[in-house]
Amino acid sequence: VRHCPFPINEETTIDAQKWIMNNQIAKELEVDHSNKILITDRATIDNFAYLHRVANEETSRNYEQIAFDHSSTYDLIFKTQKLNIVAVEDGLRTTDEEFRTLIDNIINHFLKKHQVKFIPLQATTNYDVHVGDILERINV
């Protein structure tokens, strides 16, 4: 996302979300997965939620297929919980509470629709707690 040449978050476009998803999938496929673990902070499901918000029905349906087909390559999916706190301005993530809630609701809807199993992470902003939980779960 950081290198996306198009607007993101509330201002995103279909081209932006296609670019992000296609680049994410390409980068994940470049990794030699033999005896290695890849941990990413976004799944294609997340990106699809942003695309779904701005796409027409046909484009949404096509990318839904791509996103969820690719998500089947993940051994585990961990999901953060949206906390009821003000997002910190970091120049990348949105601070718009209504928008954040909308995207989280879209993600939850499609996780349920596709019966995607995921492991909820603890409700905390402490990154170290999340990393510790993940490492414990994958036995590292």
TrEMBL record:
Family matches, as InterPro entries: NadR/Ttd14_AAA_dom, P-loop_NTPase
Domain of life: Bacteria
All copies of domain NadR/Ttd14 AAA, residue ranges: 11-123
Pfam families recorded: AAA_28
Gene3D superfamilies for this protein: P-loop containing nucleotide triphosphate hydrolases
Name this polypeptide is given: NadR/Ttd14 AAA domain-containing protein
Organism of this sequence: Candidatus Magasanikbacteria bacterium CG_4_10_14_0_8_um_filter_32_14
